[in-house]
Amino acid sequence: MNYISTRGGIQPIPFKDAVMMGLASDGGLLLPQSYPAISAEQLEAWRSLSYPELAFEVISRFVDDIPAGDLKSIIDRSYATFTHPEITPVIKQDGVYILELFHGVTLAFKDVALQFLGNLFEYILAERGEKLNIIGATSGDTGSAAIHGVRGKNGITIFILHPHGKTSAVQALQMTSVTDANVHNIAIHGTFDDCQDMVKALFGDLEFKENYSLGAVNSINWARVLAQVVYYLYAWLRVGRESDRPVHFSVPTGNFGDIFAGYVAKRMGLPIGKLLLATNENNILTRFINDGDYSLGEVVATVSPSMDIQIASNFERYLFHLFVDNPDRVKAAFVELKENGRISFTAAEMLSVRDDFCSASVNQAATLETIRNFHAENGYLLDPHTAVGVKAALDLLPADSARICLATAHPAKFSETVEKALGKAAPVPASVRELEGKPTRCEIMDADIEKVRAFLVAHIG
Ligand SMILES: *Cc1c(COP(=O)(O)O)cnc(C)c1O
User: Is residue 223 within 8 Å of residue 113, measured between CB atoms?
Assistant: First the structure.
């Protein structure tokens, strides 16, 4: 399987090169040249597989430059760190299924992809005798999952910038309590945008980027999307057994990475009814799906901070397919966005969008109410991101269908909000209790790019 760019400016490259390239060198995003099809018989045969076995079957169809035994070992090691034997169990609740994606080390779904990506990086770097310096900005979840994905790994040094005092307490501890020599936390006096701007500026300095082999771990890496495709199949196989009801997925969305993985599963032939794209007040993607209105607004801070995004980086992958794989139409759309702050779509394109997706935006009051009601009715605690998806599913998807809601984080990761919703303290799992009192290491800095650059140069591997 070879990979191409949404902007059409690169020759097809094999999987390992796509992983190391991250963002395509022409500024686009990488996609496989085609999607391997899975037949109904094939799916049926996969019912009895464990999560890592299924992951191997799915992922290996997109990878032809890593020997099967090596790929299997990378996958097995990636999911051995999960604390639930099923890795991503599906829990039946009143009216919905909860797909728990938070049993990895940092209690958010990003571990599913970043454990895999960390092991992949280490494998490819060792084979090529190369080193990689990862630099990233985080509002909390990506940074902690990336740090745990690469801690102690040969050939990799990681620098993560986060806004000082603006992540949840658990998120900060999950990052700063990792004291491995190859991990550097930088807390910036400023906002997430300040962190992001500095990281972008460093990547924009091409000489610096080349000299220090800088790499990124954000959700633009194809390997992250690929790892996430697996749990759509896994969950479908768990609930599909019960009847022939249509199966829908509700996905709390920020950067469009998670839901794009669902779209890939659908393209491969997994019988998915609708992909429900759930947003908070940052609802540009909901306006797009419901009204064809893709116009930029201001980012609003909410109780589901990992979805506080206006420009969803993975959306370009979907646009490429929506525009029938025409890179010129993609480029024109981004020129329009830059000039007018919006992208326009034809009526035929919007029909195609609504064939695959539906969408709802859930505000903060409704999110807190959903956490409270769901707990009262089912005795089950939702994190605020998951609550956005559950509320959207209950409102929009028929009650007699199988409604699978992706639980993207453990409620303990956002205990401040969960406690606000319940009006009382939420239980603290052992893995969170253990964080307190651990030694921490973190560099606190002003939002000054020269200081950040000097720190990188002094500590780069
Ligand atoms: C990252 C994140 C999301 C959004 O996922 P995308 O792939 O960016 O759409 C939702 N919930 C949680 C808890 C997250 O960490």
Answer: yes
Q: In whole angstroms, what is the distance from residue 156 CA to residue 121 CA?
A: 8
Instruction: Tell how far the Cα of 385 is from the centroid of ligand 1, in angstroms.
Output: 8
- CA dist 15 and 33 (Å) reads 11
307 lines ligand 1 (CB under 6 A): yes
**Which residue is listed with tokens 């859930």?**
362
Q: Is the CB of 408 under 6 A from ligand 1?
A: yes
Residue 209, in any domain of the structure: no
Ligand 1 centre to CA of 59 (Å) is 21
Q: Enumerate the β-bridge partners of residue 30.
A: 5
Please identify every residue annotated as catalytic. 110
Which residue puts its alpha carbon closest to atom 2 of ligand 1? 306
Instruction: Indicate which CATH number applies to the domain containing 352.
Output: 3.40.50.1100
Q: What is the pLDDT of residues 250-293, one digit of tens each?
A: 999 999 999 999 999 999 999 999 999 999 999 999 999 999 99
- The answer, as to whether pTM is greater than 0.90, is yes
The rounded distance, in Å, linking the Cα atoms of 40 and 37 is 10
Structural domains of the chain, count: 1
